[in-house]
Every structure is written in structure tokens, then in C-alpha cells.
Design a protein that fits this description.
globular, about 0% strand, about 300 residues, 13 helices
């Protein structure tokens, strides 16, 4: 891989890792559902020029409803972001949420086994067990135990994210900005309605938000989501998944380090052990899945 492309991958990992701080800062200043709705509203104008109807492609003699898959994935992803924002709003131990959020990887594999006929052997099974065991270890940290509701919301958000990716696996060949545009169009009404019900008056107060909060939301919407995912799509057009996947694995570790340094949260033995076990399991799943895809 060319050094410039390696630098691009490192930049993408840093953008995604820094998003954990952006989310926490956003939901501290702005009600969580309103902040996610604004994030999508910022993304949408950039994506709109690329939005077009997603036609079906022949498969088994029938055109699959790819548009339904895209809209369904968008709704699930909006729900995932909403639950994630709520969890960050409730929590002080952001590093623990960064670890629990990695359960999206084993959830994706389990859903693929259940609904897509994926077959796994003992290595990826071990990865699944380690991923969940590491998050379970976090509960032994007293700081995390007191925030178990936030941890549970993060786990549910990871499950919805995994369900969204399962739908997208059946709707391939879509431009990343077209996909994100439809996801925003599908999720934005749901998030606006949820905010109006759960956070009365939150949307009306958005114009008075601090500029720093707006900056963090812009970072999440434009830098982490659009630039990060567009850059990843560009890289995947040039290198196989088996080459790119290992380069994304530092992202959760960077997120944990950045969150710990930014918020000066104490690093406890359960958190270190839980992070090590979970990230080991996620790495096993990601690497073995990428190798299988290359084969």
C-alpha cells in the first residue's frame, strides 16, 4: 500500500475515534435526539445531489426490493444513533461505551448466521464469546455498574447497527453518498418526531445552542460520517477487504485512549481487562471474516 493511502487510513481511524468525544460533547449541550436529528440535517444537503432511486438488480429471476432494504437500514441506523446518543447523555464513563459499542461486530455475525446462512467455525465462535465476555467484565467496574442503563442502551444501539448492516449486505453497489442521503431521509422524520415527544421544545431551542456544540455536531455529520465513510469507500475500490480491515482495528483503541485523555477518567483493572478481551474478540471476527471474503 502506498504511504499516502496508509496516511489516509490513519486519518479515517482518527476521525472515527474522535467522534466519541464529539458525540459526548454534543449531547451534553443539546438534548440527544435533537442533536442526532441536527446531525442528519447537516448531512442531507451534501448528500442530496447524489440521491437517486435505487433500482433492483436481477437475482434468482426476481429484482430484490433494494430500495426497501436501503430505507429499512436507514430507519435502523437512525434508531441506533438515537439510542447511542441517549446512552452518551446518561453516561460519564465514555470509554466503557466505546468498548460496548464494538458488540456491533459480533451481533452482525450472529445475524448473518441466523438470517443469511453464514457458516462459522471455532475461531469466529471464540471471537463472539470473547467480545461479549469483555463487555460483561466491565460491569465489575463500580463506575460502570452505576451506569448500566447507559451500557445497555449502547448494546441495543450496537444491535440495531448490526441489523442495518445485514440489510445493506443485500443491497450492494450503491454510491456511499446516495446511501447516506436515503438514510438521512428515512431517519430524520423519525428522530424529529421522537425528539418532539421525548424532549419537548428541544428543536425550538437549537438556534440558541453554543457554537462549540454546533461544531461538534458538524464534525460528527460531515467529518466522521461523510468524509470517513466516503474515504473508506474510496479505499475499498482500490484494495481488497482483507487488506483494509486490519487497518481499521486501531479505531476502538484510539477512541478509548482519546476519551480517557479528554475526560481524564481513571483507568481501572476491569476496564483494561474488558477492553483487551472485547477488542481481541472483535479482531478475531474481523480478520477471519475478511480472510474468508478474500478467499
Amino acid at each position: 500500500m502506498r504511504p499516502l493511502h496508509m496516511a489516509l487510513m490513519l486519518g479515517i481511524c482518527l476521525l472515527w475515534a474522535g467522534n466519541i468525544i464529539a458525540i459526548k460533547e454534543s449531547v451534553t449541550a443539546v438534548p440527544p435526539l435533537a442533536s442526532v436529528a441536527l446531525r442528519y440535517a447537516i448531512m442531507l444537503p451534501v448528500c442530496l445531489p447524489f440521491v437517486q432511486w435505487v433500482a433492483g438488480l436481477p437475482a434468482d429471476g426476481r429484482p430484490p426490493p433494494r430500495m426497501a432494504l436501503v430505507l429499512g437500514s436507514g430507519l435502523l441506523l437512525g434508531g441506533s444513533f438515537g439510542l447511542g446518543a441517549l446512552s452518551f447523555h446518561l453516561a460519564t464513563s465514555v470509554s466503557a461505551l466505546a468498548i460496548a459499542g464494538q458488540l456491533g461486530v459480533p451481533f452482525s455475525l450472529l445475524l448473518a448466521v441466523a438470517f443469511a446462512g453464514e457458516r462459522i467455525q471455532w475461531r469466529r465462535t471464540l471471537g463472539i464469546v470473547l467480545s461479549f465476555a469483555g463487555v460483561a467484565i466491565l460491569v465489575f467496574d463500580p463506575r460502570v455498574f452505576d451506569e448500566r442503563l447507559a451500557l445497555l442502551l449502547t448494546v441495543l444501539a450496537a444491535f440495531l447497527w448490526a441489523a442495518s448492516t445485514l440489510l445493506l449486505r443485500r443491497a450492494t453497489g450503491i454510491h456511499v453518498l446516495n446511501l447516506m442521503g436515503w438514510q438521512a431521509l428515512a431517519s430524520l422524520p423519525l428522530l424529529v418526531l421522537a425528539s418532539m415527544v421525548v424532549e419537548p421544545g428541544a428543536l425550538a431551542r437549537l438556534p440558541a445552542m453554543p457554537l462549540s456544540a454546533l461544531g461538534w455536531i458538524v464534525y460528527s455529520g460531515l467529518m466522521s460520517s461523510l468524509v470517513g465513510h466516503a474515504g473508506m469507500a474510496w479505499m475499498l475500490q482500490r484494495y481488497p477487504v482483507s487488506t483494509i480491515t486490519p487497518l481499521t482495528l486501531p479505531t476502538p483503541l484510539l477512541a478509548i485512549v482519546l476519551a480517557t485523555l479528554w475526560y481524564r477518567t481513571p483507568v481501572t483493572l476491569p476496564m483494561l481487562l474488558g477492553a483487551a478481551v472485547t477488542l481481541t474478540g472483535v479482531a478475531i471476527i474481523a480478520l477471519r471474516t475478511a480472510r474468508k471474503g478474500a478467499a
